[in-house]
Predict the 3D structure of the following.
Amino acid sequence: MTSDPVLSIRAASKTFGSRRALDAVSLDVGRGEMIALIGPSGSGKSTLLRSIDGLQTVDAPPEGNAGDGVITAFGGPVQARGKVSDQVRKARIRIGFIAQQFNLVGRLTLFTNVALGSLGRIGTLRGLFGAWPAETKAAAMAALHRVGVADYAAQRANTLSGGQQQRGAIARALVQKAKIILADEPVASLDPVSARKVMEILRDLNKTDGLTVVVTLHQVDYALRYCDRVVALKAGRKVYDGPTAGLDRAKLIDIYGPEFEDVFWEGAPQ
Ligand SMILES: Nc1ncnc2c1ncn2[C@@H]1O[C@H](COP(=O)(O)OP(=O)(O)OP(=O)(O)O)[C@@H](O)[C@H]1O
Ligand SMILES: [Mg+2]
């Protein structure tokens, strides 16, 4: 860890019926880190990211373990005791959440979607009626340029390709002035070239702007190439947390199971 944690998760568990989606997961994320969250399908990655943004609650702790299930961002509460904090907005305004799909409002233009990122800071009605302050307009266009989709600003979001929408969602996080980006499978449905572009944008925001990035990835090679630290979940438990370089073949097989041998690619760790 390079500095004070900007995110802190203490022994978070989440049970859906009899299924344990998260099992006592603790995690500290330092300012400026770029972390890949990996693990098989159903291992709890989305549940963890959504819990960090206060989009869902984790379980209330058992009697006597009041510290369990406490999640903070920038030192402020996101959730505790199984309840989302009433101050969650303060944390959320600094968190850009990028979901795998349905990130943008389909019938609105790309520009409007991106400008909506500023709504935490300007009046909602003003924003909805399109009276964007000049500053917001400039910020939205700058963000669209930054992620390479300015040419599509006037296009309705539901007519954009998946990759263009993902980049739009990143632009919206920039207009929001997010300090952390939580991206849930941002490249899962993209072709390899678009996927690489999105990963390069995230890496650039991390390196150039110092944004903290936590990104869930199914492609282990992207985790290895773009992230400094890897956190792996398996059946809701954290089974690896360390430098990307420490993730060797044996650990990957442990995370994904013996079939992982069959999907090794050129350049995979030994
Ligand atoms: N709302 C819900 N109701 C019931 N079960 C749920 C709910 N959300 C998640 N789960 C279960 O919790 C477990 C973890 O789900 P989660 O979506 O976090 O996995 P994941 O690691 O993101 O998987 P994937 O890689 O497929 O996106 C799964 O077994 C899932 O079925
Ligand atoms: Mg998921």
